[in-house]
Amino acid sequence: MSRVKVKDINMYYDVQGEGFPLVMVMGFLGSANCWDPRMLAPLSDKFKVLVLDNRGAGRTDISDREYSIKLFAQDTVGLMDALNIPRAHLLGISMGGMIAQEVALNYPRRVEKLILASTFCGGARSVLFAPADLERVESLMEKLADRPRVRKLANEAIKALRRNAEKPGGRPAATPFEATGVISGIVQDLVEKGSWDRETARKLLPNLCTEEFIRANPGIPEVVVDLMLEAPTPIEGLLGQVKAIAEFDTCPRLPKIKIPTLVMAGKRDVFILPENSQTLAERIPGAKLAFLANSGHMFMEDVDEATGLVLEFLS
To answer: How far apart are CA 272 and CA 265, in angstroms?
Structure first.
């Protein structure tokens, strides 16, 4: 577990195992801690696995630059450069899958095989927040008078979400509005409490796994909460990530991806609807599509099946 200078920030990373590199990019609000150990262990038996904290998340610096998915992709490749990794398999989940798309499009020679998990391409399927949730977040701005930096980031995120929501054509939401309500609730907690606690972290769980899994396996979600609290994403990083996701769009460029690609999704994902994976697979030439029937966003319910799909594809 280390940090290394990548352009204007110090990035946190961890390397496990030996062999051909596999870079794993975590998603919204997550850190390197948030990968399921039940997946990480068998993957690190076969590959040199690199996990990282994205800009503004966990133990990586926040920075004053305007966040975008393209910037996160530059950070990922910059970390590969710093660690002398010329080429690697690339697995991104959720927002990490968006970052992986930008890496594949802008740095195709750096990617051997591509895995896009629980993610989407933006554009026509990128309506993210219900109007009521936007109003809720806007109302919190009055409580940020003494935190001008956070208020500025929040205003930028809200503007991006409003532009996103006002797109013509009656486009379907990539994320169900019940799930975005969870995020606005977390924003409210971070504004009012000033930091993460167990109650706030638990609010995210229904977006990550199914209610049945939480009831049947209470210990596993609590471990997830523990790992989140070890390296929580500050409100500045959260707001920057929201803005980046709201402005993300690779849909028109996906046919340019010529890298062997596996698209994975849980059929019961309520955070990024699984239909978005169908769109990805249709637009990326030759992409394989795999649905996990019982899984939510993070594949906790079918972790062995998900790991097996990854290993089979990379073999």
So the answer is: 9
